[in-house]
Amino acid sequence: SMPSEMLLKIFSYLDAVSLLCVGCVNKHFYHLANDNGIWLKIYSSCFRPKRTIWKMKSEQTETVPLDCGALCDRKPGYWKKEYIFKQIAAVKTRVMRLVKPLDPYTGLPCKNKEAMKASSLSWIIVLKDKNGKEHVIEKANVSFKDTSVTVLWYSTDWPCLAILSTLKLFGVVPLLPDQSRDPSKNGPRRRSLIAEYHLADLTASSVAVGADKLVQLFSLNPGLLLGLWKEKNEIAFVMASLHYHQLLERSTLGSSTVQYALPPHKPVLDDVDPEYGLHDYNLHLDMHGGSCTYLCGTFKSLFCRKGSDIANGYLRLTVISQKDNTKHLPLVGTLGLSWETDAFKGNVKDCYVMDVTLLDETGKPFWCFSAPVSMELSSEASSLYDYMGHIYTTEYTDPEGKVCVELVWLEETREYFIVNLVLYISTKKVNHWYGTNY
């Protein structure tokens, strides 16, 4: 019942975020909150026009455009859209400036963490039940590594696993980032779909990777770990491992329903000499368990020969060989994956997160992933003279390649040694990258 003129006067005192929120109340508020006069004032205060005149009022001075058609000739909401587009462009420019310098070891931007903070990027998961109802889980712990970010969600109000159909992982950025304060969860935000996982038949869509006294862990591709309470078979926590490569794009440029599509790859000129299949590849490898880092290293000048190193649809890159004990590496600490909820904490042994960043001979990211993996006790005993102990193996596979790790546990020093590390790159991946036919 309040007159529109009075509502417009009230709305004129609101900031941009509050104005966008009040426009969601009803259709009448939406149309009033689109008023060009209000938004032009907000726009002018943030992006001052080049040609202005001073318009004196009783107690204030403000800047307005010279052209009166800025109000009369524009459709309602024009200046709101202009303000939003310019704010988004300003944030994008700031982020692009941060991601421009590259780390020579990883081939990735040096300031990924700063760029994510500049865009106010966060991540949420949305659980959808079989009736179509969505449950949004916001609360998360975030930890940054050299080449990935680990996000852990836990809640006291998880829906029952039996009624859930899908889990969606979104990157979320505020529509109007404010660098002076933390982004409000109630303000307007944009979602970008990163991945979708099916939970209806968890045993068919996931791999059991480990357990402790309280929880059992299941891995879903790509890079998601689901922790279930053993006694109730209900969700305890969800952990996502997100590799920095293309993470900003996937977390901000997709829509709420469609994932961001990577630009088509243009094959690079294959200038390898006749003796080698691949050469001068570099690997950056991180092995961590959430808060603890077990290994962080760079391996240079990897290559494979065209003969024996290409078989069964894969090209083999040997990083660490059993035959060369000078390259065998110890791991810091006992491997395990840390988790926590509101009430409990734990560590699942023989599980960890593996971050692989493989660069081609030009230094460009060729194969990148971050994923939870587990170790399996081998039935074979160590045949190495320098290491007498149990052998453990870790294997990871995706459409682009495989990673095989062999470790020996030394009881005397209570540490693991990596004695064998081999990457197998899919020939389809290589042929697509270079436009060749291996």
TrEMBL record:
Organismal lineage: Eukaryota, Metazoa, Chordata, Craniata, Vertebrata
Pfam families: F-box-like (PF12937)
Official protein name in the record: FBX15 protein
Annotated ranges, domain F-box: 1-42
Keyword Signal: yes
Keywords: Signal
Residues making up the signal peptide according to the UniProt record: 1-16
Entry annotated with the keyword Zinc: no
CDD domains reported in the protein's UniProt record: F-box_FBXO15
GO cellular component term of the entry, any: SCF ubiquitin ligase complex
Organism encoding this protein: Rostratula benghalensis
PANTHER family per UniProt: F-BOX ONLY PROTEIN 15
Top-level lineage group: Eukaryota
